[in-house]
Amino acid sequence: MENWIDQPITDPAVPQRDARRLTVALALLLGRTDPEPPRWVRRMFGFGGLCAAVSGAVLGLAAVEAGRGSTGLIAMMAFLTGVLFVGVSLPNPAERLARQYAGRYVVPAELDEPALDLLARARRAVLDVTGSRVHRRGLLDAIANDVVLPERLWEIARLVRIHADLRAEQALALTEVITPELTAVLGPQQEALRRSVAAVTERVWELEAYASRVRSADSALRASELQQSNGTYLDLLAQTGDTEGMRALNAQADALTGILREAIAAGRTL
What is the mean pLDDT of residues 12-33? Predict the structure, then answer.
């Protein structure tokens, strides 16, 4: 897709400062290159076990030195033990932030293709609206664009993530022996998923329709700016007695005004 594929869609209720920090944190976690320990090591020790192992080794060395009377080294070993304990047992800030807001963000790169396609269409529509000239100039409904659009995008992102999880669950179930009991359970579940996907697709289409009207409004705005020189053309036509051309210019002005009004009305219907 585009560069935003690694940028999470965040619940608008998350404070903006934390949402920005979360975007950076997830980028760090997703792009982390340091390999994790083998699964059997993580299961046997975990962070607590690793911390205990390091601490035990340091304290053991300190005990040996204590027998030799090295009190300064004992103090240093005790200090290092505390530092290692805190450093190993606590998660890094990125992991802590990701856990704090778990369930309140969606990472597009983690979705399956159908979910990612719907989310990409929705986000493209939102970007088309918020990046439009008519929006920047305050000609559209600010509440619709600044409040409703982020909420609608988050709602779509949250639902398509659920869709992706359920599709994976159903695909796994279909790898087993298909029995009448399994079919009886999966049938209604698949139908419920299909209906939900259809409903979300309809919401995406509504965003795309609104974005299309906004693009038309942008074009109308550009045309209206060109109309500022219409007076010169009207004078020219008046001098030549071309009343039909004058009517065409005036009709065009009325049509452009109507396009702008339609875009504003479309935003309010969201």
Answer: 81
Which pLDDT band, with edges at 50, 70 and 90, does 95 fall under?
confident
Give, for 106, the enclosing helix (H) or strand (E): strand 105-106
pLDDT tens across 55-87, in order? 555 555 555 555 555 555 555 555 555 545 444
Could you give the CA distance from residue 9 to residue 154 in angstroms, rounded to a whole number? 6
Phi and psi torsions of 24, nearest 5°: -65, -45
Render the burial of 109-140: b for 16+ CB within 10 Å, e for the rest: eebeeebbebbbbbbbbbebbbebebbeeebb
Helices (H), the chain: 16-30, 39-44, 46-67, 71-89, 93-100, 113-130, 133-136, 142-143, 149-173, 180-226, 230-240, 243-269
Residues, the chain, total? 270
Give me Rg for the CA atoms of the chain: 30
Give the residue with greater pLDDT, 155 vs 97: 155
For residue 56, report the phi and psi dihedrals to the nearest 5 degrees.
-65, -40
Q: How far apart are CA 68 and CA 242, in angstroms?
A: 112
Cα distance between residue 152 and residue 141, in whole Å: 15
Phi–psi pair at 11, nearest 5 degrees: -55, 125
∠ CA 219-220-225, rounded to 5°: 100
The model carries a pTM of 0.65
Predicted pLDDT of residue 115? 96
